[in-house]
Amino acid sequence: MAFPEPKPRGPELPQKRLKTLDCEQGAVRAVRFNVDGNYCLTCGSDKTLKLWNPLRGTLLRTYSGHGYEVLDAAGSFDNSNLCSGGGDKAVVLWDVASGQVVRKFRGHAGKVNTVQFNEEATLILSGSIDSSIRCWDCRSRRPEPVQTLDEARDGISSVKVSDHEVLAGSVDGRVRRYDLRMGQLFSDYVGSPITCACFSRDGQCLLVSSLDSTLRLLDKDTGELLGEYTGHQNKQYKLDCCLSERDTHVVSCSEDGKVFFWDLVEGSLALALPVGPGVVQSLAFHPTEPCLLTAMAGRIQCWREEAYEAEGGAG
């Protein structure tokens, strides 16, 4: 008799806490990996932005220049620049090496929730509670945005950028996708205020989280609902969601102190990772490895798969 082939091992989920870093910048509003996943940024309620090596637990630089709490940040593709936005309505372009402010863009009428570079890092896109997305030219001296996208009827909570698309989630309950090549706008109505929207790693799907404690996976081209993921709590805060590094799992923060992982295809809950007492404010998933960063209160935690061994012993 023939024995059945063993099932291939599923992807390992990051559930071993490697490091806890006390960021000493008030509440950490957002944590973000850089492009290659070697470094991370933390956005503080004390107006600072910090750059870390999260696996080593070392602080590399502190960036000061915002007039109010920093709400989001991103790194450029070549790691030479950072951009950030915050409660002072400003969008700031930073030089990574010197820590200096290169440009400060003003024009939003409310706090800036979300910032992203385009792929070449020639533009910064910022989304604000003033219901607009503004595109700022990093290379010119002009103070006004080169383009303003103002189709949303309420605040912009989330902006993501691919090589030719801009994805925006809004409190008006719609996720909008701007196809810059075709000059077209596609809009899908979710109905509940959207807290986060992102592309799948393969670019075929959209993941949308909203204040009805539900995540939805949509087909990018048709808007068809491919999956719904529930079990976490998201009723009042702007919380992050994403897909794991190989698009196998849907990942979300929760207001009950956990990070939830669901199997993308089956929709079943794979893991509810206890982070601590409080709201998991933000998370970031490594671009290529099963490594997760979580932010709660004034700390970030770095998580790896159970089999992971830190270089030079456990840190």
Automatic annotation (TrEMBL):
Pfam families: WD40. Its main location: cytoplasm. Coiled coil: none annotated. Keywords: Cytoplasm, Repeat, WD repeat. WD repeats lie at residues 21-62, 63-104, 105-146. One of its GO terms (biological process) is response to lipopolysaccharide. The keyword Membrane does not apply. Interacts with EGLN3/PHD3. Interacts with ERK signaling proteins MAP2K1/MEK1, MAP2K2/MEK2, LAMTOR3, ARAF/Raf-1, MAPK1/ERK2 and MAPK3/ERK1. Identified in the spliceosome C complex. Interacts with PARD6B and CRB3. Interacts strongly with GTP-bound RRAGA but not with inactive GDP-bound. Interacts with p62/SQSTM1. This is WD repeat domain-containing protein 83. The gene is WDR83.
